[in-house]
Amino acid sequence: MSDSTDEVRSYTVRLELVDEPGELLRALDPIANNGGNLLSIFHERGNVTPRGHIPVEVDLEATPERFDGIVDALRDAGINVIQAGAEQYSEALTIILTGHLVNTDLSDTLSRIHESTDATVTDLSLSAPEGTDDASSARIRLATEEGAVDETMSAIRAVADEKGLHVIEPLAAGGEA
Amino acid sequence: MRLAVIGAGAVGSSVVELASDHGHSVTAFADSSSAVIDSAGIDTAEALDRKRTDGVVGSDEPADALSADYDVLVEATPTTLGDAEPGFGHVQTALERDRHAVLANKGPVAERYADVRSLERESDGSVLFEATVGGAMPILSTINDFDPSHITAVRGVLNGTANFILSRMATEGLDYEHVLAEAQDLGVAEADPTFDVDGTDAALKGVIIANVLSGDETEYTLDDAVVEGIQDISGSALELARADGRTVRLIAEVVEGSVRVGPRLVPDNAPLAVSGTRNIAQLETEHAGQLNISGRGAGGPETASAVLADIGRL
């Protein structure tokens, strides 16, 4: 297998942008200016991270050397680079949390899952038929790195245990049973 | 074969009723307080009739049934945990007399598997226990046919009561208490449904599967299983699952030496998302992909069919 430094490879960069006009363009400039070839941009506009940012996933081609330059340039420009590398967030994971979700600070729960595992919350549905002071349920979809599902699940279990929440886990990675 | 049937509940009674249809005779039949013994074959209709009307199967002593003339002892007394008595003692007596033992009682093979196997090694008799896992479904015999070393995981819905409750909750949008009461009215759940809804029953079956998969290398008991029940599942959780094309099932999972039972999210259209009281076991085979075995996991005639199939294998 050849691994020469001038071979063009594809990379996925995951960014979190502040929700302001011009931010996306500002993030793409350093990629184009440093010899990256943009393949696709997935702008999860309706999907805000626990910190209020908008996740953007950029697929690009570059040589390994240029890619390092791109990541440096992005960071220099103050862009929040969450994940940069050839590996993708390729496993989706759906769980249901039940219990006193609102009273135990749902947004803190989500932030902690995010912070301790590198998994990103891509979808959240909350159902609180008895009102937010009573037990409720949330369905949470996470994007996690390939092979990191077990790690993510144990982090979720730890947070849930601490807050007295109940986790309904998927049967297998990606919910494929 | 001449059968001694110990236990006169739904399963024991069905074995007695169906025995002649399978070419066997019953020489002894006992419940906890009475027995009927006849080396020429008991009158099964009369014994079952007496059980229904008088609550006893005959006028003999239950202990004498164990020493009666028989080729196969059918252990169909209620499952007990810990020392698994009196079921374990019944199996022991049969094996020490070089007779076969066929179990419907989960206790001895879930809690004292190594003891049962060691008694079997010293005996000319064999032990079979297909009826302990998944009622009529041939799960253990399929594992043995494939050879346990070629099965990498087993996942399944192994408790019909819990599955009935979860599927009713999901389709009708009703809460747990309501559906449990309905299940009790229908006779799907027992008056005390604890073992069904807290996962113990499914865990015992998972432990038995783990014992079969490990051969005689590692012994598993209920203490080795991680068990969670369905009592805390809310209607809103099921609704959220449904809106995403999924549902919640109480899944027993045996993989790489671990036994785990708990409510899990499964896709709505997955084979494991069986509905009502139906059971399913999904075997992950080394060379042949997934194999699904689905059917009735409980009930007198269903479980008796598995007992009689075991007797046919002896």
From TrEMBL, chain A:
CDD domains, A to Z: ACT_ThrD-II-like
Name the UniProt record assigns to this protein: Amino acid-binding protein
Automatic annotation (TrEMBL), chain B:
User: Which Enzyme Commission numbers does its entry carry?
Assistant: 1.1.1.3
Alphabetical GO biological process terms:
threonine biosynthetic process
Q: Which UniProt keywords apply?
A: NADP, Oxidoreductase
Please state every residue range assigned to the domain named Homoserine dehydrogenase catalytic: 138-311
The positions annotated for binding NADPH are: K106
Listed binding positions for NADP(+) are G7, A8, G9, A10, V11, G12
Could you name the active-site residues? K205
PANTHER family membership: HOMOSERINE DEHYDROGENASE
Protein's recorded name: homoserine dehydrogenase
Source organism of this protein record: Haloarcula vallismortis ATCC 29715
